[in-house]
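Students often ask why we bother encoding 3D structure as a string. The short answer is that it lets us treat folding as translation between two languages. Here is a chain of 356 residues written in the first language.
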Amino acid sequence: MGIRERRSAPGLGLGAFLVGLGSGWLIFGSVRVTSNLFAWTLIFGGAMISLSSLFSYFNRFSAVRGVTGGLVVGLIISMIATAPFNFAVSTSGSYRATDTKTFTGPVLAKGIYLEVDNFNGPIQVSTWARDEYSIELDIRAKGETQSEAERHMEELDIEFRDTDDQGKKRLTLGYDIPPMAHSLYSITVRAYLPGEAVIELDLGSNNGGISLEDLGGGVIYLSTSNGALSFENVRVERVRASSSNGGIFGDLSAKYADFSTSNGRIELSLSSTVSGEYHLGTRNGWIELDLSSSAQVGYDIDLSTSNGGIDIDLPNLDYRIDQNTRKRVVTEGFSGKLIQITIHASTSNAGIDVGT
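And here it is in the second language, the structure alphabet:
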């Protein structure tokens, strides 16, 4: 007896098409459809149809193919149909509207926590000799006409909260705006915090760098895409920072640090004033470390690369591994040093240079 082929009911595909058409008409008729959104919708639709076809090929869930195809086709048709009314290329709009926003307040607590979720612009955090904070925003909105740019500026909903939690000042900054509308704005955030406070940060920026200056703190989290991470006179307990398509630069001191990036260099000067552990990783980028040569500091360093060289210029080293693409060195008498620094660094298609 042959295997009976499973057939999906014709009504399933038609019903899914109508659901996709109606849903898409409501969605795409009420938002600005950018070229990026259009492309991602095609990619998502193609992937869903391909997956449903694979299920059907192996005679499992054959009805999924008709439902998925109808839903995707309905969405795409509705997007094309509403395009003449509401389509915007993400790079279009030569008119600009500008505005500034400033949030200030006293800081009586010994600790302060700042959380920022930004896009299309940098985040800059530094300290000053005041018992108050100031967060300044420089905002630009674009449009195909001046009135449209100004309307976009009015539609930007900024969410800022200032609360006190168990003796700590908590500041949060974000935006209530659909991701598909991010291309209409660029926002620069500058924060000034009390220098005497213990500072904790959770900062994220899409298409923008993050820079910290003259800052002492507890735990810091940094995340950015298409932007660099920079540090100037930063002293923290723990820092975890990641970037894509951006380098990591500056000088800092931390008890624990984890830095990662892709397609970017890592150039750091470690002040080595306290014992610490550093994990550094990048792809397609050089790693350059400037370390202290003080006799009070000992190092345990493990470096690895592929298709690149490693150069270490430090005194009194014991080589545990000495290969072209992997070196492990330990300062003689490491266990007796007042300050002990452990470094793990890796890269690919580039070299590593460690010296004083």
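Translate back mentally: Residues 217-356 form one domain. Keep this in mind for the problem set.
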